[in-house]
Fold this sequence. Notes:
Layout: H1 11-14, E1 16-21, E2 24-30, H2 45-60, E3 65-74, E4 83-94, E5 97-106, E6 109-120
Antiparallel strand pairs: 1-2, 2-4, 3-6, 4-5, 5-6
Amino acid sequence: MRSNTHLGINTNLCGCPVQIEPGVAKVELQTSDVMSADDAGLVHGGFVFGAADYAAMLAVNDPYVVLGAAECRFLAPVRVGERVALSASVIEAKGKKHLVNVEGTVDDRTVFTATFTTFVLEKHVLSDT
Length: 129
């Protein structure tokens, strides 16, 4: 299955899709020096969050899906050079509203969990008409 959403995203910063199926998506984020928050090589959490958000959008996979809310936990640090695997699954879909669970792991260590509330709109969120 191919992506129907977020077609212009920078995969160097938000991860690369490795699986897109109905209601499920997986993204891999290869972390790099540009993501470092300090001299110790701690990856800024915003990059992990961005990759998780991207995975959630791909799990819904509608051209007009947007993020409405997120409840997330950062469970362990991510270091520059590590690869974060983000797995997203739609757990509920009612009309326009979709709830998506996302888990991020580095090897066998869970580093991030979240539930994203997404909405599928009738047109692009920036559309004037």
